[in-house]
């Protein structure tokens, strides 16, 4: 039997060209997702598992928020054994929506 | 008796310094409001009454959307007799959130 590292399907990622500005704004306009993005921006790529963020939501809601961030091209995820780890797609997102991440990470 | 031009209270406008990036993003992440902003951007200041926009919502919803745009510092309104007319606060908004309006008006 092949080793099984996760029960979940591998995460699906957005092509940045397919993301509209409205989708990008909607992804970032939510306070929980804004916090996830800001925390990710301050962390090394692939260093943060989904459960490691300080946000006041349950597991199902957190999954939903990460799916929204993936769909907007903001986050890439991969499974490492039982952990799903993340990186901010900073360069790709910035190429598609110049300046938007910088505004969001300014923190005001 | 003083002339009465409107039954409504005069619109209240946001101080841009008080608008957070999350509020700005949330105001722009809605498809109806995005359309209002884009139509306003293509119109001369004060040339557009609230009822003149091609959006698929009723009067109460439209009022709500304009209130959200005012609160985010995107729109200034004034009453001219029975009409409430609008201008996009382009320069002020751009000074507070550089590049954000440009992204939104890019139209993709």
From TrEMBL, chains A, B:
<dbReference type="InterPro" id="IPR001845">
    <property type="entry name" value="HTH_ArsR_DNA-bd_dom"/>
</dbReference>
<keyword id="KW-0804">Transcription</keyword>
<feature type="domain" description="HTH arsR-type">
    <location>
        <begin position="13"/>
        <end position="108"/>
    </location>
</feature>
<dbReference type="GO" id="GO:0003700">
    <property type="term" value="F:DNA-binding transcription factor activity"/>
</dbReference>
<keyword id="KW-0238">DNA-binding</keyword>
<protein>
    <submittedName>
        <fullName>ArsR family transcriptional regulator</fullName>
    </submittedName>
</protein>
<keyword id="KW-0805">Transcription regulation</keyword>
<dbReference type="InterPro" id="IPR011991">
    <property type="entry name" value="ArsR-like_HTH"/>
</dbReference>
<dbReference type="InterPro" id="IPR036390">
    <property type="entry name" value="WH_DNA-bd_sf"/>
</dbReference>
<dbReference type="InterPro" id="IPR051081">
    <property type="entry name" value="HTH_MetalResp_TranReg"/>
</dbReference>
<dbReference type="InterPro" id="IPR036388">
    <property type="entry name" value="WH-like_DNA-bd_sf"/>
</dbReference>
<dbReference type="GO" id="GO:0003677">
    <property type="term" value="F:DNA binding"/>
</dbReference>
